[in-house]
Amino acid sequence: MVVFARRSGYPNVGKSSLINSLKRSRACTVGGSAGVTKTSQEVHLDKQITLLDCPGIVVNNSDEETVSNIILRNCVRLEQIEDPIAPVEMLLKVCLCECGVSCEAVGVCSKD
Fold first, then answer.
1. In whole angstroms, what is the distance from residue 91 CA to residue 71 CA?
2. How does DSSP classify residue 44?
3. Helix pair 64-72, 85-98: axis angle to 10 deg
4. What span, in angstroms and rounded, lies between the C-alpha atoms of 47 and 55?
5. pLDDT tens for residues 27-85?
6. CB neighbours of residue 37 within 10 Å
7. How far is Cα 59 from Cα 70, in angstroms, rounded to an integer?
8. Sign of the alpha-carbon torsion through 27, 29, 31, 36
């Protein structure tokens, strides 16, 4: 029996690194920014197992919070970010509110 496995997900989350780790060699190119893997690549782990390294997948959505989430997950190259304010505000909101700091005082979020 031959096993063929495909790994997909957000860009820059370690898909290629996982395959390199399983292969115990540098079979896939890796990098610190999104978009290093440009095309799908088959990697033969052994005679019966083939892995498929795929580029990251990001669903296109114009919702501001979703765009900020995608930016904060390092799925967008820095030079492609048009407005850095929204993701920074979101990061501050999450960090300050989770630490118990009144984020309303610094104008990041309003009290619900």
1. 11
2. E
3. 80
4. 24
5. 999 988 878 888 889 999 988 888 889 888 776 666 656 788 888 877 788 888 888 88
6. 20
7. 9
8. negative
